UniProtKB/TrEMBL annotation:
<protein>
    <recommendedName>
        <fullName>Lipoxygenase</fullName>
        <ecNumber>1.13.11.-</ecNumber>
    </recommendedName>
</protein>
<keyword id="KW-0444">Lipid biosynthesis</keyword>
<dbReference type="InterPro" id="IPR020833">
    <property type="entry name" value="LipOase_Fe_BS"/>
</dbReference>
<keyword id="KW-0560">Oxidoreductase</keyword>
<keyword id="KW-0276">Fatty acid metabolism</keyword>
<dbReference type="GO" id="GO:0046872">
    <property type="term" value="F:metal ion binding"/>
</dbReference>
<keyword id="KW-0479">Metal-binding</keyword>
<dbReference type="InterPro" id="IPR013819">
    <property type="entry name" value="LipOase_C"/>
</dbReference>
<dbReference type="GO" id="GO:0006633">
    <property type="term" value="P:fatty acid biosynthetic process"/>
</dbReference>
<keyword id="KW-0809">Transit peptide</keyword>
<feature type="region of interest" description="Disordered">
    <location>
        <begin position="246"/>
        <end position="279"/>
    </location>
</feature>
<dbReference type="InterPro" id="IPR020834">
    <property type="entry name" value="LipOase_CS"/>
</dbReference>
<keyword id="KW-0925">Oxylipin biosynthesis</keyword>
<dbReference type="GO" id="GO:0031408">
    <property type="term" value="P:oxylipin biosynthetic process"/>
</dbReference>
<comment type="similarity">
    <text>Belongs to the lipoxygenase family.</text>
</comment>
<dbReference type="GO" id="GO:0009507">
    <property type="term" value="C:chloroplast"/>
</dbReference>
<keyword id="KW-0408">Iron</keyword>
Length: 886
């Protein structure tokens, strides 16, 4: 509402007042000169909507006394490093600011937008990495509160606007706008003030139209190719992973009935003429402007990526051009960490100019020659060999959410026996009872919840024939059984590997067990290597990529299309979406694309992404993404009101679940406080058109291939909203941190977690000479089974990039978001949130130091720190960022 007039006259004119140009304001009694909404021309260009003021407005006059006050506007711009963002040589040195007042002038009936006043801000100084712009704006005192500011960039370069501060309002004090956004050359951007947090129905009259128009702009028109600097959020299927120009790099489209998948951001690149279902490839992948990395993040990401080529070349430099060369002996692996690389004295003739250039880089970059020693290797160089560590990592490693309770016995495949062979598992009661002799029978073990399984049997078996035909890897369906010992640890009992009937051979399946017979010991080690490769594939493709990065992108797109930047839920979720779209675009560019890192270094090869689609279809459901339901669905917990967090765990010392449930509860408390503050009544949910549209779009478009599933939560009450938001926040923060930032620590030393096995088991239809070689040189067979030198080095580099916190990382609950700080109630809730997270750090440290927690404490055992909330930059193996940013 308009503020009452205050009898303090700065310019007590009673007739006309001529203000110096270019200051303009609208007022009902100066209608001919008013740049109200009606005098703004709406323009459309490249699907973007903008506004421009009339050029003929020189000054403004009023016919009654006007009391003016001065607002000082300070704009902080991050100094550009100038690397890639310069668009033009023109410079004007100013930013144009248009202040939009929150309320309509009741005397202006035709007005649709709050009163607008403009002024140009000029550069006024520099501080550290920031450039400061200032303007002084004279405003009638009765105009009320500024609700938004348009910024037009009149500079020659794209600018990163950090914040705008308006000082001097007699009624509203300091007004802050946290922008944190790029504004392109001649681009006009709208920013709402930090105070402007409103449900749609409660939007001040002067901002309503802007709120609606901004959402229309962000949705775009689904036409044309998106260019850098656009801010359009729209959907597409994954039809850009293959290369339509290369027959060997064609890949199926993910998304649709045949291969269901979440949607990604539409780039609008042209379809291929040869393969119309596929988008043409491009090195540049569009993401909306606000989703791009900051300069700091870009620098950190690309610096580390820059080492990629150097490191990837190291094995080739040592072994010549043989990309398939294995490590000749185990100590050769250690050379990567201990001594670095011995460069050839002369450049080999076969190297092309790119190789020679890289050689020069290698020679100069002395620090870049050596990989950091992974934590797992630092703690216990031989841990990868031990069965207890193999089992422990299913509870506290980088993939702690695959282990599940055995609830049915005997184990049976659900696949078609006509295609895949006999469904009954080869693991018998006798085998298990031999292993757990003296404890109990199998039936008792199942009833007492003592048997656990890593089950990659039915998921991988359908891909075995295809993968083996590629010739670069082997694959099996696998089951690994564990027994929960009285000490609270898991002990591996048996591994079953299955090959379906193929190439005229019948189904092959064998069970491997820990043993004291030397031949079987080596077969057991090789079987473990195969299971670890399966676990690595599942971890990277499902636990990490599909469940966090990929599944979250539709939430981001839908939020930007349907929730105004003023919406309280947008403001709650916004930090959880930081950088996700750009890191996903990077992944499509070089990680999950045809011939990319995943395909060339993981067992599932070119079928990797297709596998992730099959598993999305079979397994992914939104209501199981929150930690409690995830644990229950795997049989790892049951509801129990008398237990902490209402859940009784099947394995009490389960570090991921123990710390995760603490974090889940902290997040849920914060989300509950926040949601209940803005939605004190259920009816407010049902009347919130933006919120309902957002959820509808997530379910029916972003995850539209699953829109008819009965398990989607309803959104009718604040409790529904709390559960939905807590799930999304958990996935983006806790879940992602747990499966992302330990990747280098656990898999950087690849014998601990190989990503691929290249040789079939020696006892699978063996030829005499192969079996003889295995008996004579089992270590060589293991090294040949492991990734090649090139594959291992490529994975090590990729994992080191993915495990690193950027210097500008934002950790969950570490610092309050400026928009949250505007409301004292929300601020107080945040302080509780922050305090709980600080406390959690201590709880986790305490558990890691407690010898009773044997799955995270002990000789050579890595403490479980992946859910410790805060961290320094770098590869630390701890720290929970708000968002999926790497
Ligand atoms: Fe990640």
């Amino acid at each position: 509402m308009l503020m009452p007039q205050v009898h303090q006259s700065l310019y007590p004119s009673k007739t006309s007042l001529i203000l110096p140009k270019p200051r303009i304001y609208s007022h009902s009694h100066a209608s001919s000169l008013v740049p109200s909404r009606s005098s703004f021309t709406k323009t459309k260009r490249n699907g973007r909507v903008g506004y421009k003021t009339s050029n003929n407005v020189k000054a403004i006059a009023t016919e009654f006394p006007v009391q003016l006050t001065k607002l000082k506007a300070n704009v902080t711009v991050k100094r550009n490093d100038g690397s890639k963002r310069k668009r033009s040589d023109r410079t004007s040195g100013t930013l144009r600011l248009e202040l939009v007042f929150a309320d309509l002038d009741p005397r202006e009936e035709r007005s649709l937008t709050g009163i607008i006043i403009y002024e140009r801000a000029s550069q006024a100084g520099q501080a550290d990495d920031d450039v400061l712009y200032e303007a002084e704006v004279e405003v009638p005192r009765d105009y009320g509160e500024v609700g938004a500011v348009f910024v037009t960039n009149e500079q020659s370069e794209e600018m990163f606007i950090k914040e705008i501060v308006l000082d001097g309002s007699p009624h509203h004090g300091r007004v802050l706008l946290t922008c944190q956004a790029w504004v392109g050359f001649q681009q006009k951007r709208l920013f709402f003030t930090n105070k402007s947090t409103y449900l749609p129905d409660k939007t001040p009259s002067g901002l309503r139209r802007l709120r609606q128009d901004e959402l229309v702009n962000l949705r775009g028109n689904c036409q044309g190719e998106r260019k850098k600097g656009d801010r359009i959020y729209d959907y597409d299927v994954y039809n850009d992973l293959g290369d339509p120009d290369s027959p060997s790099d064609l890949r199926p489209v993910l998304g649709g009935k045949k291969l269901p998948y979440p949607r990604r951001c539409r780039t609008g690149r042209p379809r291929s003429k040869e393969e119309p279902s596929m988008e043409t490839r491009s090195k540049y992948i569009y993401v909306p402007q606000d989703e791009e990395f900051s300069i700091t993040k870009q620098k950190s990401f690309h610096e580390r990526k820059g080492l990629e080529i150097v490191h990837s070349l190291l094995p080739a430099l040592q072994t010549g051009s043989d990309a398939e060369a294995k490590f000749p002996y185990f100590t050769a692996i250690d050379v990567l960490f201990n001594e670095g690389i011995n460069l050839p004295s002369a450049q080999p003739e076969r190297t092309g100019s790119w190789m020679q250039k890289a050689l020069e880089v290698v020679r100069k970059a002395k620090d870049g020659l050596r990989f950091e020693t992974p934590q797992v290797m630092k703690r216990d160089r031989f841990c990868w060999f031990s069965d207890e560590e193999f089992a422990r990592q299913t509870l506290a490693g980088v993939n702690p959410s695959s282990i599940q309770l055995v609830t049915e016995w005997p184990l049976r495949s659900k696949l078609d026996p006509e295609i895949y062979g006999a469904p009954k598992s080869a693991i018998t009661d006798e085998m298990i009872e031999e292993e757990i002799k003296g404890f109990m029978t199998v039936d008792e073990a199942v009833k007492q919840k003592k048997l656990f399984i890593l089950d990659y049997h039915d998921l991988l078996l359908p891909f075995v024939r295809q993968v083996r035909e590629l010739g670069s890897a082997t694959l099996y369906g696998s089951r690994t059984l564990f027994f929960l010992t009285p000490q609270g640890t898991l002990r591996p009992l048996a591994i079953e590997l299955t090959r379906p009937q193929m190439d005229g051979n019948p189904q092959w399946k064998k069970v491997f067990r820990p043993t004291w017979k030397s031949t079987d010991v080596w077969l057991w080690r090789l079987a473990k290597a195969n299971v670890l490769a399966h676990d690595s594939c599942y971890h990277q493709l499902i636990t990490h990529w599909l469940r966090t990065h990929c599944a979250t992108e539709p939430y981001v797109i839908a939020a930007n299309r349907q929730l105004s930047a003023m919406h309280p839920i947008y403001r709650l979720l916004h930090p959880h979406f930081r950088y996700t779209m750009e890191i996903n675009a990077e992944a499509r560019n070089s990680l999950i694309n045809a011939g990319g890192t995943i395909e060339s270094t993981f067992s599932t090869g070119k079928y990797s992404m297709e596998l992730s689609s099959v598993i999305y279809d079979k397994q992914w459901r939104f209501d199981h993404q929150g930690l409690p339901r995830d644990l229950i669905s795997r049989g790892m917990a049951i509801e129990d009101p008398s237990s902490p967090h209402g859940l009784k765990l099947a394995v009490e010392d389960y570090p991921y679940a123990n710390d995760g449930l603490e974090l889940w509860a902290i997040i849920k408390k914060w989300v509950s406080d926040y949601v209940n503050h803005y939605y004190p009544e259920a009816s407010l949910i049902e009347s919130d058109s933006e919120l309902l549209a957002w959820w509808e779009e997530v379910r029916t478009v972003g995850h539209g291939d699953k829109k008819d599933e009965p398990w989607w939560p309803e959104l009718k009450t604040p409790q529904d909203l709390i559960e939905i938001i807590t799930t999304i926040v958990w996935v983006a923060s806790g879940h992602h941190a747990a499966v992302n930032f330990g990747q280098y620590a656990y898999a950087g030393y690849f014998p601990n977690r190989p990503t691929i096995t290249r040789l079939k088991m020696p006892n699978e239809d063996p030829k005499d000479e192969d079996w003889k070689l295995f008996l004579e040189k089992p270590v060589e067979i293991l090294l040949e089974t492991f990734p090649s030198q090139l594959q291992a080095a490529t994975v090590m580099v990729a994992l080191s990039v993915l495990s690193e916190h950027s210097p500008d990382e934002e950790y969950l609950g570490e610092k309050i978001q400026p928009v949250w700080a505007e409301d004292p109630v929300i601020r107080s809730y945040f302080e509780i949130f922050h305090g709980s997270l600080v406390k959690l750090e201590g709880i986790i440290d305490g558990k890691n130091a407690d010898e009773n927690f044997v799955n995270r404490h002990g000789a050579g055992v890595m403490p479980y720190e992946l859910l410790k909330p805060f961290s320094k930059p770098g590869i630390t193996g701890q720290g929970v960022p708000y968002s999926i940013s790497i």
